[in-house]
Amino acid sequence: MQTEQPIIVQRDCEALMIPSGEKLTLASGSTVWVTQSLGGSYTVMTDRGYMVRLEGKDGDAIGMAQIADLKFEEPPTSESTQEIEEKVWQQLRLCFDPEIPVNVVELGLIYDCSVTRLDDGYRVSVRFTLTARGCGMGEVLKRDIAAKLLTIAGVRETDVDLVWDPPWSQSRISSAAKQQLGME
User: Fold this and answer.
1) CATH code at 24?
2) In 22-137, which ranges are continuous DSSP H helix?
3) Alpha helices in 53-113 (DSSP H)
């Protein structure tokens, strides 16, 4: 969702500057334009010319809905590792680069994903990268991925690693995402 009309921020709220990841307060009364609302967060352009990310819980500050994370029901005891892995991929598709309106799976940022059975549930391990080394959003995406994975019933632990090898390239982007971005 993008807004062409300016939105007046209705209350102070915490935001993260894109791409540095620096925390800042988006002040009540400032003007913003929503550039995307995907994956449980909002990306807005401020009247000062920079982009920031707002968590979904702060949607009301910009006159939008508060976005809650998707939670799965408690799994039946017979749920397989494969069924958990399917839910993991669903959740990964809810994680977005705040500058690009494509999820991390379709962007080709996920290098490895595995599910391991524990005594009391599952551990999910994910290796991912970023489109550029200088991007300061790595820790933000890392926390976002871990938080979304922990909403899956039965997932007790996550191990999310940001890696740089092999370097990401546009060849990793899915065909559907390339079409969405106007690259095909």
Assistant:
1) 2.30.30.40
2) 81-92
3) 81-92
106 and 166 together in one domain: yes
- Alpha-carbon distance of 108 to 158, in angstroms, equals 20
Per-residue pLDDT tens over the stretch 9-23: 999 999 989 888 889
**Alpha-carbon Rg for the chain in angstroms:** 17
Tokens of 6: 């300016």
What gap in Å lies between CA 123 and CA 117, rounded to an integer? 6
Task: Examine the domain organization and report whether 140 and 86 are in the same domain.
Answer: yes
Q: Are 104 and 135 in contact (CB under 8 A)?
A: no
* Predicted TM-score (pTM) of this structure: 0.76
